[in-house]
Amino acid sequence: MTKYLFDTTGIEKQCYHLAAMAIASRQIREEFSPPEDAEIHIFHAYEDQEIHQTLISVAVQLRMIDDSLMQNSRTREFAQTIVGRLNETDILSLREACNKIIHAREIQILLPAKPGIVLHGKKGSESWKAEFDILGFVRNAMKLVVCYDEDWDIQ
User: Fold this and answer.
1) Residue 55 domain-assigned?
2) What is the DSSP letter of 19?
């Protein structure tokens, strides 16, 4: 199988950063809580921005990896793993979560409770809402990256 060689180490690092930001959020908010640290509110804006940008980057790369595996009839079970809900009743696979991250018109990052993401968008005239856990997304993203690493060969 000939394929584009992804920097899987870079994707793994981005997944680590997503997990670290999600887990550290609670501690940061507890350590730097108003009113004595009122200026620290800017951390929350940076946190959301960093998570958003990293999610988009990881989602694009995972979709490309999954497309590569699919084109070459390779195992892609992790791309089909359920990571959340679509429109509150349908399942959301890792692949579909990546699609929704890429095409979302609005993103809401739920921190510091259970680290989650809520995305809103439209497909045609239909509105959609996707919800998933950041750590579940990262866990399954890493499985897909490992699957890709183990499956590649250059001809």
Assistant:
1) yes
2) H
The one-character DSSP state at 7 is: -
Full residue range of the structural domain in which residue 19 is found: 8-151
Whether 11 and 18 have beta carbons less than 8 Å apart is answered as no
CB 11 within 8 A of CB 98: no
What tokens appear for 105 in the block?
Answer: 């018109």
Integer CA distances (angstroms), 111 to 30, 49, 136, in order: 12, 13, 15
Give the Cα separation of 59 and 69 in Å (integer): 15
Does the CA dihedral 24-26-32-38 come out positive or negative? positive
Q: How many domains does the chain have?
A: 1
Instruction: Tell me if 49 is assigned to some domain.
Output: yes
Is residue 103 in some structural domain?
Answer: yes
CA dihedral (26, 48, 102, 75) positive or negative: negative
Greatest pairwise CA separation for the chain in angstroms: 61
Average pLDDT, the chain: 84
- Residue-wise pLDDT for 55-93, tens only, equals 999 999 999 888 887 777 665 666 668 889 999 899 999
Note the pTM of the prediction, 2 decimals.
0.84
| 3 in any annotated domain | no
